[in-house]
Design brief:
Radius of gyration: 19 Å
Distance between the termini: 20 Å
Helix content: under 10%
Mean pLDDT: 83
Low-confidence stretches: 1-30
Order of helices and strands: EEEEEEEEEEEEEEEEEEEEEEEEEEEEE
Amino acid sequence: MRHLISLAAGLIVAASCSACGEDATGASRMPSGAQARSLHLVLNADLAVTPESLWLATEATQSPGSRLAVFVQRRSVNGGWGRAERLPAPPDTAGHVEAALVGHKPCVGYATTGGRPVVTCRGMAGWSPAPDPRVAIPGAVFNQLEARGNALYLLVRDGESMAVLRRDRTGWVRVGDPVPSTSQIARLSHASTREAGLELTLEAVGRRPGRRRVLGLRAGRWREIAPPATRHGMGPQLSGAVRRGSTIFLMVNDAERRPWRTSIVASTDGGRWKPLRGGVLNSGVGDAQGILTLAGGRLWAMWQQSVARRGGFEQRVYVARVDRTGVTRRRMTSVSVSSGPGSLDLESAGGRLWSLDLRPGPSPGAMHAAVTRLDDGAD
């Protein structure tokens, strides 16, 4: 999953769903969601899916006033959610939670208040901590957890540089050279299944705001594989570049516009970035931000738009299919009233497509992770 820049913290109340039949693009009626209700306040969440099970990792409180902790819930694809398991996490959990599958084994990564990376994986004996990444890089700060088949990768910040670590049998080892990245936002792509295909997206936040670079790992070094994307303002970079064949796709979240604009650009054979047909994803009014991801062998965009309303923001979540010809099959999957953006994810397994977003709970101040199976029209 992916951490987001929020307008505020916490959800307020559910909105009427009378607008959920069809949106302006003619999308079909949105599917129903299944909320994991055993936790009170979910601050962020991430989803990992196998053909048999859904694994939901959350940073949440169990009850009003309780301390934050990291929890994992499992659901069979045809059943209900099991009881939330509290991971053996440090008491100062404070970071965007991310879930990844190594084979069919779930792993969860997150940060402590000081940024220390913590990774926990589930084996036959239950959940157990992975080796400490700070043995490999003493000052490592958590940024992202990703899996490639049977390999687990960790993107960390080390002072004024970024580094990628891969878990082996004895601990964590660095992959490639350090990437200088003072005041930059960085995300690994998850489009590749081999180390040689690892790609890294960097967004400058310093002297040249909005300058995005895409690097690929080549012969052990990170090298630019496309010209910098410079025509958009700075904004939350929630997902990395995604490669399909010779084309690299990049979602750009521009928060310097009013309203915030989310759009998709593409570079083919290392050429300059070009906008896709229908690539500006904003639908009507409201600030937009979102993710670009592969699911079920297809490329998808998922984004949310926040429109100021009395008592909070009207929050609408959309998905759309993306290919070299443009953006198609836009559809709205949820609408609620919140106080700002929350976690988003889209995953596929066994021919089924699942989406994750955060929605209001039944009591004031509560917030739950809603996991929805999208119907055949979206899949």
